[in-house]
């Protein structure tokens, strides 16, 4: 915010957190507290992920009291025994652990019946073999097959020791049900609880009817199809799945150039990495571009001086790749020159994306707004088809935008900006302590006890927890002409901004957390179901006005470093907040928790 830094005003984050009045002006207290730095208000934090622990399935409660302690038909000759007739008596000896929800569903299911799902006679049945095949293919849907591996009793066994055989089969029965239910739960809602990753994640975790699924397994004629039907079926998930399968079939032998991390090359600079940059253009540029600049490419001998001829070459390459053609080689240009991520890193991003997709509804809806923070883009879909997209600015790394879903309810034109406490304390206070009338001069409104007071009348050395500051509608209001509201506990919304130049940047993590739109009138018209002219007319009135959205529209404020575009082609993006690292840590913590007690 240039406004806060003392220059021309530009947009700042607009999380409205109205407070109550601050204490009155007190000269003595002001002098005593003058040297005390105000405590900073920090945002959410990332956690050390704690995986869901496993618990033992209480198999001792599943034994039919009629056969408890009995050897039943085991005293008969082998040919007269009924296979598995008395096998339930071995249940207390089975030691299988599972997530709590899985264990509870199994106890309910097996406590109410005397038959088995996965075993028959003296071995495993065909339904077990079909289920095992699905579980072994878990990697195809971004899951870890090791989480669902079950030891299968050998085909060969000592027929004279049926007791041992049936003990093995009963253990397999319980382990198999635990594996299948864990798979189903994981593929429906994800292995990872997003709310345990950080305070920036906010999702109501899906519930899965596991006991009901076991009942379906008991009656279905196609076990494999039933299990696979639990995987997400959205077009986005299927595109991620196809891409994952394609990449796993590839070898990572594509020629690449390496450019030193952190390289920043500007016209007139001298940098030894220039040779690698030119090598990248030779490798990644189109034949047409290389023909047009053939003389420059042929004459370049590896010198570090970034001459005007080479600047023109780089600008042409940037334009061809859809980047800002400014001749400045930074992160975005380097990604284009080096070919982006390796196959291994792409696979990692796909697995993370498939996990995160499970947190969202399976099918985003017929009409919705989708914001992908790493892409710095917002997309509007209606009638199941993407209608348009636009550049956005999201929160900086220090003021990250949350990952959640909500519903758009209102468009407010000529909005007020209620300054959040975090900005008052962290950014405005130093200025206000040296210049108490600063907000008055800048046109802000300050309230104490519900009544307007001059900024200079507030004790800026005391607590500001009850001070309310807002910026009235104006041409340089931090929210611009309008904001689009989807009420949430994080006070995140979409809005206009007077800082239009930010949209020209490739890296647009620049706000205090809200989402700034490059074409706010277009988005407002779409969600309101009116023309852009009607939106312009409301703005031209100059009045602050809330326009209700006739039908609430889902909005997904998401974070995907791999995501398909409207043609179904998966695109990859920079992990601007480093969240994929925390996802991988959560995956590892989950593996350890599951296999430590397996």
UniProtKB/TrEMBL annotation:
Pathway in which this enzyme or protein is active: Cell wall biogenesis; peptidoglycan biosynthesis
PROSITE patterns attached to this UniProt entry: LD_TPASE (PS52029)
Keywords noted in UniProt: Cell shape, Cell wall biogenesis/degradation, Peptidoglycan synthesis, Transferase
CDD domains: YkuD_like
Ranges for region Disordered: 1-24
Annotated InterPro entries: LD-transpeptidase_YkuD-like, LD_TPept_cat_dom, LD_TPept_scaffold_dom, PGBD-like_sf, PGBDSf, Transpep_catalytic_dom
Active site: 495, 514
SUPFAM superfamilies reported for this sequence: L,D-transpeptidase catalytic domain-like, PGBD-like
Composition skew (Basic residues), residue ranges: 1-11
A GO BP entry: regulation of cell shape
Domain L,D-TPase catalytic as annotated: residue spans: 367-535
GO function term, MF aspect, one: carboxypeptidase activity
Family membership noted in the UniProt record: Belongs to the YkuD family.
Name listed for the protein in its UniProt record: L,D-TPase catalytic domain-containing protein
């Amino acid at each position: 915010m240039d406004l806060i830094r003392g220059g021309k005003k530009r947009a700042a984050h607009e999380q409205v957190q109205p407070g109550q009045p601050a204490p009155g002006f007190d000269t003595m207290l002001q002098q005593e507290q003058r040297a005390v730095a105000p405590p900073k208000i920090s945002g959410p934090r990332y956690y050390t992920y704690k995986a869901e622990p496993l618990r033992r399935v209480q198999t001792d409660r599943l034994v039919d009291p009629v056969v408890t302690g009995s050897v039943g038909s085991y005293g008969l000759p082998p040919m007269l025994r009924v296979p598995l007739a008395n096998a339930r008596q071995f249940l207390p000896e089975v030691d299988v652990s599972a997530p709590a929800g899985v264990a509870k569903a199994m106890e309910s299911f097996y406590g109410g019946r005397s038959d088995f799902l996965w075993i028959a006679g003296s071995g495993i049945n065909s339904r077990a073999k079909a289920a095992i095949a699905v579980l072994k293919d878990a990697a195809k849907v971004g899951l870890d097959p090791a989480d669902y591996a079950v030891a299968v009793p050998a085909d060969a066994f000592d027929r004279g020791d049926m007791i041992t055989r049936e003990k093995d089969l009963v253990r397999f029965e319980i382990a198999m049900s635990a594996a299948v239910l864990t798979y189903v739960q994981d593929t429906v809602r994800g292995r990872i609880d997003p709310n345990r990753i950080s305070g920036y994640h906010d999702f109501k975790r899906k519930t899965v009817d596991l006991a009901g699924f076991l009942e379906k397994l008991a009656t279905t004629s196609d076990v494999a199809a039933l299990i696979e039907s639990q995987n997400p079926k959205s077009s986005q998930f299927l595109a991620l799945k196809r891409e994952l399968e394609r990449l796993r079939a590839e070898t990572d032998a594509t020629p690449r150039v390496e450019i030193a991390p952190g390289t920043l090359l500007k016209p007139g600079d001298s940098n030894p990495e220039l040779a690698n940059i030119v090598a990248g253009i030779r490798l990644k540029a189109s034949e047409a571009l290389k023909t047009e600049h053939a003389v420059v490419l042929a004459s370049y001998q590896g010198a570090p001086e970034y001459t005007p001829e080479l600047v023109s070459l780089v600008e042409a390459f940037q334009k061809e790749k859809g980047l800002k053609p400014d001749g400045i080689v930074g992160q975005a240009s380097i990604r284009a020159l080096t070919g982006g991520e390796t196959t291994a890193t792409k696979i990692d991003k796909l697995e993370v994306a498939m996990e995160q997709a499970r947190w969202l509804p399976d099918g985003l809806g017929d009409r919705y707004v989708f914001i992908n923070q790493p892409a710095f883009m917002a997309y509007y879909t209606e009638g199941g088809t993407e209608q348009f997209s636009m550049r956005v600015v999201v929160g900086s790394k220090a003021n990250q935008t949350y990952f959640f879903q909500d519903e758009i309810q209102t468009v407010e034109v000529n909005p007020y900006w209620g300054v959040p406490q975090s900005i008052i304390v962290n950014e405005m206070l130093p200025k206000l302590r040296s210049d108490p009338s600063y907000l008055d001069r800048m046109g802000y409104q300050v309230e104490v006890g519900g009544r307007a007071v001059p900024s200079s009348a507030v004790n800026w050395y005391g607590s500001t927890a009850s001070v309310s500051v807002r910026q009235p509608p104006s041409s340089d209001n931090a929210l611009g002409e309008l904001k689009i509201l989807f009420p949430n506990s994080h006070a995140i919304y979409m809005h206009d901004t007077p800082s239009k130049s930010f949209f020209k940047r490739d890296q647009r993590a620049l706000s205090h957390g809200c989402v700034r739109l490059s074409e706010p009138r277009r988005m407002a018209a779409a969600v309101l179901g009116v023309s852009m002219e009607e939106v312009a007319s409301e703005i031209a009135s100059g009045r602050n006005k809330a326009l209700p959205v006739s039908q609430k529209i889902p909005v997904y404020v998401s974070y995907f470093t791999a995501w398909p575009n409207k043609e179904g082609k998966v695109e990859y993006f920079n992990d601007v907040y480093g969240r994929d690292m925390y996802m991988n840590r959560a995956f590892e913590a989950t593996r350890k928790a599951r296999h430590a007690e397996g």
